[in-house]
User: Fold these one by one.
Assistant:
Number 1:
Amino acid sequence: MRKVLQQLGKYKRSTFLCISLTTLEVIMEILMPFVTSIIIDRGLEAGNLPVVYRYGALMVLMAFLSLVFGATAGKNAASAASGLSANLREAIYANIQTFSFSNIDKFSVPGLVTRMTTDITNVQNAFMMIVRVAVRAPLNLIFSFVMCLIISPRLSVMFLIAVIFLVAVIGIIMVVTLKIFRQVFRKYDDLNASVQENVTAIRVVKAFVREEHENIKFSKASKTLYDLSVKAEGLLAFNNPAMMVAVYFCIISVSWLGAKFIVGGSMTTGELTSLFSYVMSLLMSLMMLSMVVVMISMSLASIRRISEVLSEEADLKDPENPIEEITDGRVDFNHVNFSYKHGSGKNALSDIDLHIKSGETVGVIGGTGAGKSSLVNLICRLYDVDEGSVCVGGVDVRRYDTEVLRNQVSVVLQKNTLFSGSILDNLRWGNPDAAEEECIEACKAACADEFIEKMPGGYHARIERGGANVSGGQKQRLCIARALLKKPKILILDDSTSAVDTATDASIRAAFRTMIPGTTKIIIAQRISSVQSADRILVLDDGKVDAFDTHENLLKSNAIYQEIYTSQMEGGGDFDQPA
């Protein structure tokens, strides 16, 4: 709770102003029945019209002030609640930007989306109700009860019995529903995951005619959420019957005992009239409090989930005095062990001892799951090693400023991502200050200029979200050009030419040799033709180094490399290879 409320920031003033104005509004409302009793007893029954006029005018003024205080309090409550939700979204988003991949995996993308939308909306609604209703209702209840005690201490005992009954019922409901709401929000995560997966892969779903299967899967997730929501709301429905029992008990008690007291002369008609007003005010306050309890029950689960994200610290942190400069593109793996789940006992990489010279071109090849992507993820410190060290420029990557390291280690990942905007906007992700001529030069090196010039608008042509209006090969070439604009000391291509033909692949590699000769190039590929011209080739098998040598030597001595070469070159694996 404290973590969430810390995000109020500049909206604390609106919050306290709302509370103050609500208090004044309640005071005005509480005094009006008291003035009514004076009008009845001293004015109407005594036939004293000046008293009626005087106190009547006072009531009009009090009603007007109550209206002004209430409206201003409502405006400040809306400002504070909306400001809190905006600050929470910004705080969560800012913290997510610091997360490593392992932090993201812990929460999942749909889970984070639910926290930033559904959960924050729940907190916003609850906060607005708390600063208005949760302040107004207790004050109204306390002041009403005090006035009841002043008018008739004996009748006030009846209200106390009703309050104790309602507090007991509401407390039991709150404890039970809070557990259910925690499950409800976890199911929201599952539902969002199902929607995200389906929409993202809609082309695959339609290609395999799996719409019915996806509908059934979504219906199951939706039905589970429905059942839990019905269970929670069914328990909350007991609020109203309990409330009505308390209301009827108080009305019958006051009517019966009040009539006896008037007949006995211990109470006036005006006092009984004002007492009825205070009874209804007291009971309405209890009803509002029960609504607040319902909202708090829902929001507590959301607050806990939001606090988890706000409290989460990134697994990867910069050292106190980080190194701000990378001297060259040397890469050294010193007996590295790495697993995605620390302590699981299953390593993705085991005892990797590898040394790459600055400016060297290294190919990486191996079967699926051999650890190729895991290896390069450690160079730019997307993950940290379990044992050993990874050094760039002779320095452990954990000693660098992360931003400096990633600016000098440019990665084109397996999954290429483009963002909505122009081609130039996407290219400048690599270098925000790059001139258009630099962008064109990078695109020529990546063999992307040939298709860009054919697009309407050329380099100013719009890319749709996710690069939906360009092919897989075009997307890969744009991502390579984007990486080149960073002018990195190390360039990593993680199977990022798999969607281009071998002739274009060869042209890209030739451009690398002339355009960035001093850059260390690490090329992960499935095709032998993509790596055979490299200075050395690393063969990985089950997360271990099987061999690290030149193409010629590997053909003579390494069984895995010989098998891959034979299956591709002699078996005609590369149908688009030029004759």
Note: Confidence is low (pLDDT under 50) at residues 573-579.
Number 2:
Amino acid sequence: MIPKNELLFLALGGSGEIGMNVNLYGCQGKWLMVDMGVTFADPAYPGIDLILPDLQFIEEQRENLVGIVLTHGHEDHIGALPYLADDLGVPLYATRFTAGLIRGKLEEEGIAKRVKLNIVKPGEAVQVGPFGVTFVPLAHSIPEASALLIDTPLGKVFHTGDWKLDDSDAVLGKPSTPEQLAAIGDQGVLALVCDSTNVFNSAPSGTESSVREGLISAVKKAKGRVVVTTFASNAARLQTLGEVAKATKRRICVTGRSLDRILTVGRATGYLKNFPEPIDSDAAMMLPGREVLVVATGGQGEPRAALGRIAEGTHPIKLTAGDTVIFSSKQIPGNELAIGRIQNQLAAKGVEMVTERQEHVHVSGHPGRPELEAMYGWIRPQTLIPVHGEMRHMMEQARFGLANGIPRALVQSDGEIVRLAPGDPEKVGHAAVGRLMLDGDVILPADGATMNERRRLASFGQMSVAVAIDGNYRLVGTPEVRLQGVPVEEDKEDLLDEACDAAADAVRKHKGDLAALRESLRLAVRRVATKWTGKKPVVDVLVIEV
């Protein structure tokens, strides 16, 4: 679908799910992309860490794509760029801090020279094809988060990105004032495309400065070494923890590659200037516990992150009874088991743990209902388009927006093409959407043959059978059977003996061609496994002609 004299909206990710945000605006034959993020794999994708959006729709008309505009530097908004942006061949637009994070990713993939990255100042406007885009600063948990005021011949769209309201002095950056946002509303806004993450929260998200006091209180109560884990990209929280370390007279140690990257980019772009000079893990372990504050990645239960390795005892930072771990982050739905596993490992060491349930050690970066209501009043859109949420979040925000005076609300999901103008908003088509997985260095369909095979192996195990035959299809020697992941344990040798007998019998009874023999062997061996275990393992067959 090539947009005509109309304004279209299409989400290829992030609508009906939290994460993997990719949004397209279409007008006068051209498309503008907003964000290109990833989501993190769950146990349904064994062996996979990252899930990428399938951009088939826009790849097939890449000549009509004029650019990619990035709202901020979180992984669910920029994480797919190093894997997919080069193929699209269009310029990127981002503020300096966000661009610093993106540049590092592009350099790691060796494509930094091939992808044009334009730096835009907060509050600045750029023209990208038929789209005028103004970067409107908003508060979030990372510097230079921006809403986008997208000006088109058919009307203006206010695309919030991730945001919150922080009525205290912002820890990093200067968000727009209510007066500035109301002035945008005075211009007339066709549609508000808005973050839905915390729509069920009846209270505001809270200020970063209030977390500082809560963290200082929690750290002062700690008797030994303290480890604080938070979202690696939460630069505001990293700045806060630097202030907490100073206030509690502790040296700070930062451990985790992604935290190092945020610290490096933050300092290079003028942030985190007063952050205390960190010490390394070895130096931290040489100091008395009461003199150390460690900031670590891994608060969502990632086994290879710093906290996971600390809990296992494989990290240079060692914790013992009386030490404290503070979880200064929200538990993302789906990560409960992984986080619980790490907390149990820490509990077994006698480590004390503090979460947001015990102390005020975290605030969200997304708007609660009072903040949404305030934004509605400032922007005063004709239509509300909820995004950045599961269906329950988006439906609730639509109801909430209508109840607070917005004339219309339209709930869409990934792949649904919405015409915003002319006329009333309506769904006018559907685009192909899907997921890709990053498997090692290879990008594959998330539900393609590779993943389906891996799921079968994980669920049922694998067996292999090898036989040698002469030119008359007579068995030479004895069959060989091997197995992996088939639940037999102490009965393994008995099962293998029976499977070998079944394979030999299949050769003796064989009538037909080589393909038929392979299938007879596969079924014969699998029947034995099913009789012994109730499972139907994957069976590989090798026939050697001698």
Note: The chain is about 30% helix and 25% strand.
Number 3:
Amino acid sequence: MGIIVHQALHGYSEGHRQFACSAELTPNDARLVLVMSDASGSGVTAEGISYLTGYPLPESGLYALARTWPAPEMPRPGCVWTHTLFIEFADLATLDSPSQLASLFKAPSIDTARVYGGALHFTNALASGWALTSSQVPVFARLATALYEQPHDQVWARRATDAQVDDVVLRLWDLQWPRLRRSFRFCTLTTRDRSQEGALFDLQFCGESVSRLRFSRSTEGVEATSISAGPWLAQLVDYARRPDASEFREVLRLLGTDVLGGREAMRAICELQATLARRGPTAVADAIALVTVPATLSGSKAAKEMVATRALSRADVLNDSELHYVVDNLDLVAEGELVAHGWKLAGHLLEVAPGTLVELVEDERPAVQAAMRATVKELDAALLVDNMMPGTSWWPPLLSIRPDLAEMSEFWRRTQARASDVQQAGVELHAGSQLAAAVQGLHNEVSIESIVRAFGPDAVLTCIQQLMSEGGDAKELRKWIAEACRQPDAVAAFLAQAPTLNPRLVACIAAELAPDVVPNDYGVDPWLVALTAVKQQAGQLPIELLVYGFQRAMSWRSRSVGPLLCLTFESLHGAATAGALASSNWQHLRDSLPWVRTADAWDVALRLRLGLVKRCVDTPVAPEDYVALASTDGLFSMILDATWEHWGGKRYLKWVEEVMVESADPRQRSRSRAVRAYVEKHSKWWK
């Protein structure tokens, strides 16, 4: 893509005047061009070389780049030819390397003076620029040092006759942002300061034959003699030596349009680039200092964005003040960078300032909030929960973003959260995985109560049973079992309806509830269902459950007295007969048994039989259950003896015999005959 470049030619013809011009200039600008196109000072033409002059024409919106040649063919000594190129400010800003305009210069003569009246078409063919040679680098470094370390002073330097000064100055001009480029004033050969009223020249050269550049004003200017050791200059020289330094041009365009001022910003921009390229531990802090008041770049949004982006990429190792800067400027960071590095910031904040992370996911800046919420969604769940602590109020917003955390036992263990806290965070409590995690993680009694209330005791008991089947420690689950047992109706439903029952869980429930607590208002006793299931799984009931089941049968609650006695009595009696009934078990049984004579108090087996008979007769227990109380004839005979001695026992035995004689079960009919024989033997009045 090309641009239009206007031109003009000035030379001597009965005085210095304009020969041709294709540009429309204001009168003031035309006069300035006339002055600048004349010899730059006495003795300049004696050097025998051409030189460049660059300066803006503000009224016309043009930048003038001129090359001046000595004109020895003219009759008057000291005459010059000057070919001036005019480029619009807007076009100048688009050029990657405006120094390429110098290729348009053509040395004029009397014969060609009239061909400069038309505009030129320029194509930015060398878009990537050109590199300094090794001999030009020291010159470039001296000029850059003076220009940018003393930005408010006029700079001058001595020019050797064979030095390639023009190329160096043009490279300096290339490496400027558009606003600085169009205001930069320079002349590569003069013997006096060429500044005009209100328009000082930034850079000027004098020949070797001149002791120093003469300044008409009070200033003496600054001679470019030294080279800075600062990293900013090394950075600028590096870009000047690389034709493909497109990244620096982009930075200059970006920051140059965002920074007020002129040459003073170059050093700051280069220093920022050098700092951002560093990997040391102080790099981020140093970069932040460069964009913080009162630094030159403190008003640049683009510079702050660069620093924030760089700091974000190292957010996992930043200190508190550096993190604070990143957080305050997150809205400046591009979405792609937030996505790429947001996890580092979130992870570090979780460790050092979790409350700040919560503030970000609720930030008033929409872009920041959206990005950080997206980041939290992608964070490793273990990282999130590992930094949660009890008593902190910052985790609910994170849970609202990551409801899956409620399925982790570590979440509950660290937060000891209540159900209401979790629900207020927008998480519904209904999944079995959530309950299992809570059961394994919570130990706070208030929190446990809230979860049991939210899920229901039957669901909690089902969950506990599953955990026990997987090897869960019953001791650690006792608080949950105790809380679930606060609702006996729910326990009854669980015992009666659970497809399988874990013996350890049944034993724990029995340890929590007295035998007469669980209701049995209708149907089969839940405890009969539970104990039968345990016996089927284990082959036999442990002594503690035998005692509990017998007590249940002796209580007023059960509607399944007979089956419970059948389930527990014989094994319990055998343990008592063998002396295997521990004192603790006996303490539970004793209050359920009737009074006996002191002489018989030692006989636990006898007391069991007497208690059994009293319950059978008083209830009364169904005949089919009575005849099934003992599997051996010997024990059944002892039960008959105890029944015969009990008040009302004779009548009860006759009823049993009458009912059982009609039974279809051969064993029951056999027991019926045994009852008949017993009664006939012990009671003649029955005949």
Note: The mean pLDDT is 90.
